[in-house]
Amino acid sequence: MRILDKYILKELFGPFFWGVGAFSSIFIGTGTLFRIAQYITQYGASVTEVLKLFIYSLPGIVVVTFPMSMLLAALLAFGRLSSTSEITAMKSGGISFYRLAAPVIAAAFLVSIFAVAFHEFLVPAANAAYNYTVYYEIQKNERPKSQEYIVIKDISQGDIRRLTFARRYDETTGSMYGVTIQEFENDNLTRVENAERAVWQQDRWIMYNGVVHDLTTGGSVARTMHFDEQVMPLDKKPANISLEQKKPEEMTIKELKQQIKALRREYMNTSDYEVELQQRLSIPMASMVFALIGTPLGLSPHRSSSSIGFGLSIIVIFIYYSIMTFTTALGQGGAIPAVWAAWIPNIIALIAGGLLVRRAAR
């Protein structure tokens, strides 16, 4: 690594970590603390429960601040270098703006990769723990007992062996309605079982009024058998089934893919999960496009001030997340494909950043 790169990165990472702390504080102060206060006043949450909520909320907040902090860091770093005429001196020495921006883009790429890994291995588990604490510890299991369209996955060595669907599930009565079971071998569907309902009795699930279809390797029906009553190939208790039903933000990328695949087999809507899956990559990668925007914007000397840089960052962030909110709603509603819903904000920001960089290079 050249001395120039080290010098620019040194100017970059100070504001970056400051930005992570500053933006995280804003999110915590405007959202997390307000919700925690509600749990204290409405449910009498204890100090231990409040502390757990605060800790579990941090990973999801911090990962969102990475792109914002990279934008602020690029603005402040190049703003300071420009205000002291160091950028002018570097250009006089024959160094192009593209070369000056290279270490910033490289650093933003590494931050994006780290953000993807951080979101994959830490955030879903923290979100699940946060929701569990709220629903079962603070609200004393006031989570709705009846759910629509549940999916139960039996996975072995990363492959789906059995999928169980229910159009409606009631934990209180231990009942499922509109049950479909799909069994797989080597990712090929080999058996389908349908039943009007299933009831938890004597530590096992019993299906009623159903039919079993054994399938050939080609997918055609080899044998059909009707039954009035049959033991269901599922050993999970009603309470465990409720706990297994995760929200999209509680799933890893692998779990999201499995959920999408499972729901598609039943021709169910997967828009929410597909948008969430795409955003697991698009939001972290926003660090790179924000670096493209922040680097040329920071060239004006008056932008070396942290307050000016922070204010300009807020404006760019507001525009970006306004577009993202709009496209996300369209994607979840099925108006546009999920990949476009997640990546349109980045594409727009990338075009804007490219134009700004080209202008600065002149």
Automatic annotation (TrEMBL):
- What Pfam families would the database entry show? LptF_LptG
Which key words are in the record?
A: Cell membrane, Coiled coil, Membrane, Transmembrane, Transmembrane helix
Q: Name one GO cellular component term.
A: ATP-binding cassette (ABC) transporter complex
Q: Where in the cell is it found?
A: Cell membrane
Q: Report if keyword Disulfide bond is assigned.
A: no
- Coarse class of the primary localization is membrane
Query: Which InterPro entries does the record associate with it?
Result: LptG/LptF_permease
Q: Does the keyword Ribonucleoprotein apply?
A: no
Q: Which residues form a coiled coil?
A: 246-273
The membrane-spanning stretches of this chain are 12-34, 54-79, 100-118, 281-299, 306-323, 335-357
Q: How does it sit in the membrane?
A: Multi-pass membrane protein
Q: Which domain of life is it from?
A: Bacteria
Q: Name one GO biological process term.
A: lipopolysaccharide transport
**Name of the protein in its database record:** Permease lptg/lptf-related
Write down the species: Lucifera butyrica
